[in-house]
Amino acid sequence: MEMLTNAIAWVEIPVVDFERARIFYSRIFDYEMPVMQMGPTLMGFLLHDRNSGIGGAIVQGEDYIPSHTGPLVYLNGGSNLLTVLDRVDDAGGAVLVGKTHIGPELGYFAIFQDCEGNKLALHSMG
Questions:
Q1: CATH of the domain at 6
Q2: Bridge pairing between strands 119-124 and 107-113
C-alpha cells in the first residue's frame, strides 16, 4: 500500500451564476479569484500553495450542477491513478471517465462511481 501525503488532490464546486459565485468566494477569502476558461468550462481558482497544498475551484459548465450532494472531490491517485482506477469495477463501482490527460504540468484525472452511487474523481501526475 502506497502511503499518500494527502487523501484529496482537488475539489470543484459547481456554480450556475459564475460571477455571483466568484464575488462571493473572493469576498469571503479576501482575494481576487483568478479565472480561466478551460474548453467549455469556466473556472475560478481557490488560492493555494501549488507546491504543497490542496486546491480547488468554482466551476461553471454543462456537467456542473450545484446540489446538496456536494462538490466533485478528487482523491489523490498516487503516482499513477490507474493503480486505483483499475480496481474500481472489481470493487463494485464503475469507471465513468477513464484516465484523461489535463496538461503537461497538471497531470491526469479520471471519474468513477463508487458502490453507493457517489460520483468521485482521481488525480495523479502520472
A1: 3.30.720
A2: antiparallel
